[in-house]
Specification:
By secondary structure, this protein is an alpha/beta fold. It folds into three domains: about 5-345, ABC transporter type 1, transmembrane domain (ABC transporter transmembrane region fold), CATH 1.20.1560; about 360-440 and about 520-620, 3-Layer(aba) Sandwich (Rossmann fold); about 450-520, Rossmann fold (3-Layer(aba) Sandwich), CATH 3.40.50. Helices cover about 65% and strands about 10% of the residues. It is built from 21 helices and ten strands. It has helices at about 5, 15-30, 30-50, 55-70, 80-130, 135-140, 145-185, 185-195, 195-235, 235-240, 245-295, 305-345, 405-410, 435-440, 455-460, 470-480, 480-485, 505-515, 535-550, 585-590, 595-610; strands spanning about 365-375, 380-390, 395-400, 420-425, 430, 440-445, 525, 555, 570-575, 575-580. Strands 6-7-8-3-9-10 form a six-stranded mixed beta sheet, with helices on both faces. Helix 3 runs parallel beside helix 7 and helix 4 (about 55-70) packs antiparallel against helix 5 (about 80-130). The protein is elongated and about 125 Å long. Bound molecules: adenosine-5'-diphosphate.
Length: about 625
């Protein structure tokens, strides 16, 4: 994620919030009416909050103090009798609280609804986006970290928006309202009270940005922890066999400590910030009380107004005290938001080009024209590859490990795009087709087929959306899998454990072949599908593969040259270059690398065959 380093330079939370809001705007727009309604309720709530101390002022100034001083009661205030004014004031307190609570309820409920809707849509889109991001992105990212972004980061944003941001807006609005009224009552006292703001801003600015930095570091560390745990559990067999427990535990402990340190530092800073605000507020209240009493004595302010003033100051204390904590919380949620936006902003480097067309049903001719490719590094993995395959031909790709065979096949699927040159299917550059329509017409069987933790039926049906039960069974029969599936406890409904662990290697491959067969794709890719199987399983899988590939353009990677000698074309690759291509006979006649390798393997195989009495061919057709 290259953008990460750039973000560290950004100061304050405003740019972060702006970036997150801008990205989320299309989602927010859909909820604009609900948000506007909730905002109106919020304004009403704030207004009523400002009105709260006013009934007290009237009771004080017009009823209590005149009575206490034995002066004439201001009986004609608003044309009301003292008892009517008193009753009205008492009633006003209840009405203000009642309507205020109702408005607060509506604004919280409405805003929660809007935020939850927005974020669940965002989450669904990130999930979709993640699935579409190129393999190169996923190979660089830690899956645990990505999972944290889809789950924990979104949840953090949801809770903070509802429980922190919303009260923060109410607080800021009522603070502004209180200040305006305070200025109206007595500007000199208001100025004294306001002295707190510049001091507070100066003291907190640096701290807030430090809290934000630590919060982001902490969330990143949590992602790393999740990734380490995921990787370790995913490879637990290797970990135990190689006795890596101690080493991995020590790595985990260090990451754990780092995450802990960052969390504590962020909590410590937040706590310090809150206390500083608290002390400052006490000082200001004391000063205003002292100065305010003088102002009342000099008749520039009524006692009731000083009461309103002091109530506002005291009421301001809570929002102000919470302000620092809320800003800290929002800084954390902004960190989460930015991590989410980072993913959404990441453009898949393999994607539908503008104007990409849905592919027509392929005949299956495939042409590589001067194709070169490299993964991020400077070294070319494929160099100027050229070959043509006619529809229905069988192509074997052979060569040493790491020579680029799998890479070459992944380019046909557009898991990556070539850096130079082009790949044509039926005479059209494959980048001119939409990705989905291209991939739907290619079936793949890999060496280690991944099955999902779902029923056998669903696993096979994954090969083609909308496949019927009949088609699933037909595909299973073609893959020589029907008989063993029927012997499973619940037949086609047997739920496989994760990665299909309850089946033998050969059975898993046959389910994978059924999954490939159900697509009825004109192009088939086989990447060493029988490697690692015992002789008997290999034979059954080969028989199934022969049926699957019949009459279809087939690419097969194999280390066993004798198994692919009947292929229509053999491509011999070394260090990313196709050094020899032709039929087995042509390559043998060349008497170069392929021929040497073939002869070497024959000697070894003759020995093996004598021992096992078995002989296998992948492409038996
Ligand atoms: P083969 O299938 O012939 O064994 P590959 O196509 O798997 O060869 O790999 C060719 C080269 O590309 C190897 O050097 C390998 O290390 C490198 N390679 C393969 N996959 C990646 C990847 N995702 N990122 C970077 N390098 C890779």
């Amino acid at each position: 994620m290259s953008k990460r380093s750039k973000e560290k330079d950004l100061k304050g939370i405003i740019p972060g919030i702006t970036r997150v809001l801008r990205k989320f705007y299309p989602y927010i727009r859909k909820e604009r009416f609900l948000i506007a309604g909730s905002f109106f309720a919020l304004l009403l709530e704030t207004g009523l909050r400002l009105l709260e101390p006013w009934p007290l002022k009237y009771v004080f100034d017009y009823i209590l103090i005149p009575a206490h001083n034995n002066t004439t009661i201001a009986a004609n205030t608003f044309g009301l009798s003292p008892i009517a004014l008193l009753t009205l004031s008492a009633l006003a307190i209840v009405v203000i609280a009642g309507v205020g609570s109702m408005a607060a309820y509506l604004s919280t409920y409405g805003m929660s609804l809007a935020v939850t809707r927005v974020l669940s849509e965002v989450r669904s889109d990130i999930f979709n986006h993640l699935q579409r991001l190129s393999l190169s992105f996923h190979q660089k990212s830690k899956s645990g970290d990505l999972i944290a972004r889809v789950t924990a980061d979104i949840e953090k944003m949801r809770t903070v928006t509802v429980k922190t941001a919303l009260p923060l807006i109410t607080n800021v609005l009522s603070l502004v309202g209180m200040l305006l009224i305070m200025f109206f009552l007595n500007w000199e006292l208001a100025l004294v009270a306001m002295a707190i703001f510049p001091i507070l801003t100066l003291l907190t600015k640096n701290m807030i940005s430090r809290i934000r930095n630590f919060a982001k570091l902490h969330r990143d560390s949590e992602g790393v922890l999740a990734a380490t745990t995921g990787e370790t559990i995913g490879a637990i067999q290797v970990v135990q066999v190689l006795s890596l427990q101690e080493m991995l535990h020590s790595i985990f402990s260090k990451q754990n400590q780092k995450s802990l340190d960052e969390a504590i530092e962020s909590l410590r800073l937040s706590a310090a910030l809150e206390r500083i605000v608290q002390i400052l507020m006490a000082i200001i209240i004391a000063v205003v009380l002292w100065r305010g009493s003088h102002v009342v004595l000099s008749k520039q302010l009524s006692p009731g107004e000083l009461l309103v003033f002091m109530t506002y100051l005291k009421n301001a204390f809570e929002p102000m005290r919470k302000l620092s904590n809320q800003v800290g919380q929002i800084a954390k949620a902004t960190g989460s938001g930015e991590r989410v936006v980072e993913i959404l902003d990441y453009e898949p480097n393999v994607r539908d080009l503008p104007g990409a067309k849905k592919a027509h049903p392929f005949f299956g001719t495939v042409r590589f024209e001067n194709v070169s490719f490299s993964y991020d590094t400077d070294t070319d993995i494929l160099k100027n590859v050229n070959f043509v395959v006619q529809a229905g031909q069988q192509v074997a790709i052979v060569g040493p490990s790491g020579s680029g065979k799998s890479t070459l096949l992944s380019l046909i699927l557009r898991l990556y795009d070539p850096e130079a040159g082009r790949i044509l299917i039926d005479g059209q550059d494959i980048r001119e087709y939409t990705l989905d329509s291209l991939r739907q017409q290619i079936s793949v069987v890999l060496q280690d087929s991944v099955l999902f933790a779902a029923s056998v039926r669903e696993n096979i049906a994954h090969g083609r959306i909308g496949a019927t039960d009949k088609e699933v069974e037909a595909a299973a029969r073609l893959a020589n899998a029907h008989d063993f599936i029927m012997k499973l406890p619940q037949g086609y409904n047997t739920v496989l454990s994760e990665r299909g662990g309850t089946l033998s290697g050969g059975q898993r491959q046959r389910i994978a072949i059924a999954r490939a067969a159900i697509r009825k794709a004109p192009i088939i890719i086989l990447d060493e599908p029988t490697t690692g199987l015992d002789n008997k399983s290999e034979h059954t899988v080969n028989a199934a593969l022969a049926k699957l590939t019949e009459g279809r353009t087939t690419f097969v990677i194999s280390h066993n040259l004798r198994a692919v000698e009947n292929a229509d074309i053999i491509l011999y690759i070394e260090s990313g270059s196709v050094l020899e291509q032709g039929t087995h006979r042509e390559l043998m006649r060349l008497s170069s690398r392929y021929a040497t390798l073939y002869r070497m393997q024959s000697i070894v195989d003759v020995d093996k065959d004598t021992l096992s009495g078995d002989n296998n061919y992948v492409l038996e057709a």
